[in-house]
Amino acid sequence: MENTIVNIQHLVKSYKELTAVDDLSLEIKEGEILGLLGPNGSGKSTTINCLLSLLSYQSGSIEVFGKEMTPESYDIKAQIGVVMQDVAVFDEMNVRENIDYFCGLYIKDKALRKQYVDEAIEFTGLGDHVKFKPKKLSGGLLRRLNIACGIAHKPRLIILDEPTVAVDPQSRNKILEGIQELNRQGATIIYTSHYMEEVEQICSRIVIIDKGKKIAEGTKNELIGMIKNTETIIMEVKDMPDGMTAEVENLPHVYKTQRSGDKLTVYCSGGKHNLVRIVSLFNDRDIHLGRVNSELPTLNDVFLEITGKQLRDKEE
What we know:
Radius of gyration: 24 Å
Largest sheet: 6 strands, mixed
CATH superfamily of the largest domain: P-loop containing nucleotide triphosphate hydrolases
Order of helices and strands: EEEHEEHEHHHEHEHEEHEHEEHEH
Number of helices: 11
Shape: elongated
């Protein structure tokens, strides 16, 4: 049986008239990479801060590693690694000194700490930059340093809040591969991101929250199965006669169309061979089609349909 690493039950956190977290319950099992998604102001950051006991809350309970989490739970906190969106390193220290400092908060044995620091440097690919100070690093290398400082002490639970913001694609791939490797090595991970493709790539389970409430959870495929849209067909159609849109909408499993210039977007729910059926209709009417593309729903479609919002570039 899988161990429960994090157990949040009926959490409520309010600020005067605003309820930031509203009766939220969430369990995270050992070995998961949990994607925590939500639009701006959804309560993600507040939930994480309550989990870390950085914020007090009105009601509910939080257990980590089977123990109640409190501000004085230093034994628990020593097993947690936190990598926040805002880079938190010392400008006056070089790469190695920064990693050594943060690792030293938890690992007092000097020989073991040196081993852990060396491993964190190798793991994040910073070996050629150990004497660089943060201001000399590119955005991607700075993000890697931020991660190295958060994971050098080999925590059992790692919280990563937007770790790939504003980095180049090569660094982003390096970071994502590193997160998956940390998970293979035994770490349980909570991951927040506004990049849906990242969540699809690495997360074993996803929780969507909005207005402080959990509104959906499951694997990527389970979440996709919750929404109406099962296929989106995008077609280039020039000189489409009046009434053709209505004919398309009358086809089986078509529930909506959108027309923009020469582009016709057809939304389908269920059914097979929707693309064949639609193309056949246009062929029967002797209407020439340009490019035709069929797209299956993504997590972004799930998020938009469930919350009515798009994820934005900035965290709450």
